[in-house]
UniProtKB/TrEMBL annotation:
It comes from Paenibacillus hexagrammi. Residues 5-161 form the Glycosyltransferase 2-like domain. This is Glycosyltransferase family 2 protein. It comes from the Bacteria. Pfam families: Glycos_transf_2. Signal peptide: none annotated.
Length: 232
């Protein structure tokens, strides 16, 4: 099976090189795509300098949703069987990548999400972020009766059918929770597996406390709409 690791990146020049090299070291056969999301620093240059990643330069910053849809469209057109999303800031451990890919390769799931909280690990997040994760865990369980311990995790792998789905449509802003609801509505098999994650290795998160509130409101509304609309 052909595997593509998609890395959406916005102003991640300090970490992107190490992230790309660590993925190649951990999964030799994987191809790597960096979607440079309109960065104003040397993210694209550093990614290309690794010599092991393809790079797409978006002319403007589209946000995580637009960058990931670009990656899925690339994966679909190039005929990849599995696509993996991973962060450019070093939070996702490349050594854990095989844990989310294996259920896809064996046909156990259509989408596998790496969870920080399915089992106890050394990972610790800010109180405000944990509250947000708890809220969306509750919201999804309330709507569909299924528990996701880490619904905001962007460390996830999908099969060819979902690559095609996401190439056609992918939520725009803060898409992880809405994407879960979309897949559940279309009866895809989505599972979580426990993974080790780290704190951001470099740079600053774009999510401020004010943006966190906006994030919760916007995603909540989007999830409600996805739950009730016709998505078949």
């Amino acid at each position: 099976m052909r595997l593509l690791v998609i890395i959406p990146a916005f102003n991640e020049e300090e970490s992107i090189g190490q992230v790309v090299r660590s993925i190649k070291h951990a999964v030799h056969k994987a191809d790597i795509l960096v979607v440079n999301d309109g960065s104003t620093d040397r993210t694209s240059e550093v990614a290309r300098a690794t010599g092991v990643a393809a790079v797409i330069d978006l002319p403007v910053n589209l946000g995580i949703g637009g960058a990931m849809q670009t990656g899925y469209l690339y994966a679909y057109r190039k005929g990849y069987d599995i696509a993996v999303q991973t962060d450019a800031d070093g939070q996702h451990d490349a050594a854990e990548l095989s844990k989310i890919v294996e259920p896809i390769m064996t046909g156990q799931a259509d989408c596998c999400i790496g969870s920080r909280f399915l089992e106890r690990t050394e990972y610790r997040s800010a109180w405000s972020r944990r509250m947000g994760i708890w809220f969306f865990t509750w919201m999804i369980e309330w709507m569909i009766g299924k528990t996701y311990t880490d619904p905001t995790s962007g460390f996830r792998a999908v099969n060819r059918d979902i690559i095609r789905l996401f190439a056609d449509y992918y939520p725009e802003d803060y898409p992880e929770v809405e994407a879960i609801m979309l897949l559940e509505r279309q009866r895809y098999r989505v599972m979580e597996t426990s993974v080790l994650m780290h704190s951001r290795q470099a740079g600053r998160s774009s999510i401020t406390p004010l943006k966190s509130l906006y994030y919760m409101l916007k995603v909540s509304l989007a999830v409600c709409i996805t739950r009730i609309r016709n998505v078949s």
